């Protein structure tokens, strides 16, 4: 690495903060935060519903947190809990029509916002950045 670690750390921290501010600003208009958004998106993108344990793995958190988040989204009318079609002990999270509609709206707003933040970044640079983040996450899990 050509930069001193603190310089890279500062850049990463500043970029994270900038992205976070923009994302929170949009999500808060809908009473959501990134955790709610991740859970809602997982439910929307799963055709037959998704198990709570699967969402916990995706988000790299403990299952009880997903239960709390799911309860809140259920109360907001954005998801439903339904019995699994073959495993009656398991519950699936399924997006409601309201949740799907909201998800489409938010996805569009977030995509536009991220596009503005990524102005001047080539698609190749963006792909390299994503691969870098994936490698860091993978390496951290291997420890």
List the helices and strands and how they pair.
Layout: H1 5-28, H2 34-44, E1 50-51, H3 52-59, H4 63-75, E2 79-83, E3 91-95, H5 97-117, H6 123-142
Antiparallel strand pairs: 1-3, 2-3
Helix pairs in contact: 1-5, 2-4, 3-4
Your description of this structure?
- By secondary structure, the protein is mainly α.
- The protein has a single domain, classed as Arc Repressor Mutant, subunit A.
- Helix content is 68%, strand content 8%.
- It is built from 6 helices and 3 strands.
- The protein has helices spanning 5-28, 34-44, 52-59, 63-75, 97-117, 123-142; strands spanning 50-51, 79-83, 91-95.
- The chain has a 3-stranded antiparallel sheet with strand order 1-3-2.
- A hairpin with a 7-residue loop joins strand 2 and strand 3.
- Helix 1 packs across helix 5 (97-117).
- It is globular.
- The two termini are 21 Å apart.
Quick structural gist:
With 143 residues, the chain is mostly helical. It has 6 helices and 3 strands. The protein has helices at residues 5-28, 34-44, 52-59, 63-75, 97-117, 123-142; strands at 50-51, 79-83, 91-95.
């Amino acid at each position: 690495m050509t930069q001193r670690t603190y310089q890279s750390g500062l850049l990463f921290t500043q970029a994270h903060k900038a992205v976070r501010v923009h994302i929170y600003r949009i999500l808060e208009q809908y009473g959501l935060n990134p955790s709610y958004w991740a859970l809602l998106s997982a439910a929307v993108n799963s055709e037959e519903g998704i198990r709570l344990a699967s969402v916990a793995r995706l988000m790299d958190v403990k299952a009880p947190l997903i239960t709390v988040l799911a309860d809140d989204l259920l109360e907001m009318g954005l998801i439903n809990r339904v019995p699994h079609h073959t495993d009656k002990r398991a519950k699936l999270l399924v997006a409601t029509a309201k949740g799907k509609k909201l998800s489409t709206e938010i996805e569009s707003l977030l995509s536009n916002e991220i596009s503005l933040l990524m102005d001047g970044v080539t698609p190749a640079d963006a792909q390299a950045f994503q691969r870098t983040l994936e490698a860091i996450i993978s390496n951290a899990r291997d420890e």
